[in-house]
Design brief:
binds manganese (II) ion, Aminopeptidase, binds ligand BES, 4-stranded antiparallel sheet, alpha+beta, Peptidase_M20, 33% helix
């Protein structure tokens, strides 16, 4: 298989570049046709790789690509999940090259979606091609690649519920996360959940002259800032009553184990060009971004932001706020607690509305399962190192739903790096990681098939 991958390496890269040229931004309705084009591209390439069938499954939103290769019903089945949609590319002026005109520089592919998640999805298609072309496919495989992950996977849940038979499998395999570094591979053992909402603060019934009224009437922007600031105390502990009630605290041993993973604070600060880190007292940076919940403002607006100045007390102010959740916090409950608290702290001088957006459950995956051990052995063989289990801070809301609706656990075998700048300008993906991923995936198939034969699925 190594030889096949080396031989076809250039084509594997150029095909990915073709996929990256399609601006499949799911959040922006102007790109609806492009999102479909990306789905069609994946469908065609599944067939070209040797899948028995591949189709676009329509939803009220963007289509889901489903394909499969069944070689023997008595063998295990791996269900590969990923997403072909991408985040919006703005701010555009910070890109060194246009986000949908991929370029290779310093052994990295620069484009929106290069790592999250087109590059990582495409590794799976090329791994399938490689296994089939070299006679190495050891089990059945199904692909479910969606186009709405970056906007909350609104329609995937219904698709999964309506297609349980079709999606029957033994394990779900996902490459949409990262590793610690290329010298220190890791396997994701957990993801945070999410509760996302928008708040609206209304003061006077119209924008006012800030000289005539300033000082006597509540300014909704000032009030919104005060309210947001009060959501954390001096220890950066979130003040919403009940917020931490369900949080699973890790034991000292578990935290010590976590602390063994390499992390360099100086490099971290240097990479981000920050004078210091910032977060909850008595937790390390690694813990703050994985096992602890957060509350962050993702956007805030109101008043005059145009050129020059305008002396005005705006009538309204808005913010988008997200909370990352950890086991066993429930997004519904947290959204409810936030809403109740936010309304309760609003002064009488303003009216406040809270609108919930999407959410997602946190997950932790077992690290002793057959599937996890198979992934571990795959890394050992391809990378020459045993991967470290690592809980990640990002969210893939659908993972919890797979478990609930299909009864299936996921293996989170991602190959990205924190420095790949996903969701940011100049997103990129290392050619090394792309090719290494294509080598690692077939080894997971091999070890999963053999281990599940001797130990059960
Ligand atoms: N691939 C990411 C999630 C991720 C990134 C997990 C890095 C672990 C490490 C995914 O595409 C993503 O961006 N998810 C969103 C979820 C949201 C849109 C519901 C997130 O985490 O913000
Ligand atoms: Mn992703
Ligand atoms: Mn993403």
């Amino acid at each position: 298989m190594q030889a096949y991958i080396q031989q076809h390496k250039n084509r594997f890269i150029s095909e990915l570049l073709d996929l990256l040229r399609i601006p499949s931004i799911s959040a922006d309705s102007r790109y609806k046709n492009d999102v479909r084009k990306a789905a069609e591209f994946i469908r065609e390439k599944l067939i070209a790789a040797g899948a028995d069938s591949a189709e676009l499954c329509e939803t009220p939103g963007h289509p889901i690509v489903y394909g499969q290769k069944i070689i023997d019903a008595s063998l295990p089945t791996i269900l590969v999940y990923g997403h072909y949609d991408v985040q919006p590319a703005d701010p555009l002026d910070l890109w060194h090259s246009p986000p949908f005109e991929p370029v290779i520089k310093d052994e990295k592919i620069y484009a929106r979606g290069a790592c999250d998640d087109k590059g990582q999805v495409y590794m799976h298609l090329k791994a399938l091609e490689t296994m089939l072309a070299t006679g190495n496919l050891t089990c059945n495989v199904k692909f479910m690649i969606e186009g709405e992950e970056e906007v909350g996977s609104d329609n995937l849940g219904n698709f999964v519920k309506a297609n349980k038979e079709k999606l029957q499998a033994d394990v779900i395999l996902i490459s949409d996360t990262g590793i610690i570094s290329n010298d220190c591979p890791s396997l994701t053992s957990g993801l945070r959940g999410l509760s996302y909402l928008e708040v609206e603060v209304t003061g006077p019934n119209r924008d006012l002259h800030s000289g005539m009224y300033g000082g006597a009437v509540a300014n909704p922007i000032n009030i919104l800032c005060e309210m947001i600031a009060s959501l954390k105390d001096e220890n950066k502990h979130i003040t919403i009553p009940g917020f931490y009630d369900e949080v699973v605290e890790l034991s000292r041993e578990e935290r010590d184990e976590m602390a063994k993973a390499p992390f360099n604070l100086e490099e971290y600060k240097k990479d981000l060009n920050i004078g210091d880190v910032h977060g909850e007292t008595s937790y390390s940076t690694t813990e703050r971004v994985s096992i602890r919940p957060t509350l962050d403002v993702n956007g805030i607006w109101g008043g005059y932001t145009g050129e020059g100045s305008k002396t005005v007390i705006p009538s309204q102010a808005f913010a988008k706020i997200s909370m990352r959740l950890v086991p066993n916090q429930s997004p519904e409950k947290i959204t409810e607690l936030f809403t109740k608290h936010f309304l309760a702290i609003a002064p009488k001088s303003v009216k406040v509305k809270v609108k919930p957006h999407h959410g997602g459950e946190p997950v932790v995956t077992p690290i002793d399962s057959v599937a996890f051990r198979a992934a571990s052995k795959a890394f050992e063989e391809a990378w020459g190192k045993t991967p470290i289990p690592k809980r990640e801070g990002g969210s893939i809301p659908i993972v919890a739903l797979f478990e609930k609706e299909l009864g299936l656990k996921s293996v989170l075998m991602g190959f990205g790096l924190d420095s790949d700048a996903i969701h940011s300008p100049n997103e990129h993906y290392g050619l090394f990681n792309y090719i290494k991923g294509i080598e690692t995936i077939p080894l997971f198939y091999k070890y999963y098939t053999t281990l599940s034969k001797t130990e059960g699925r």
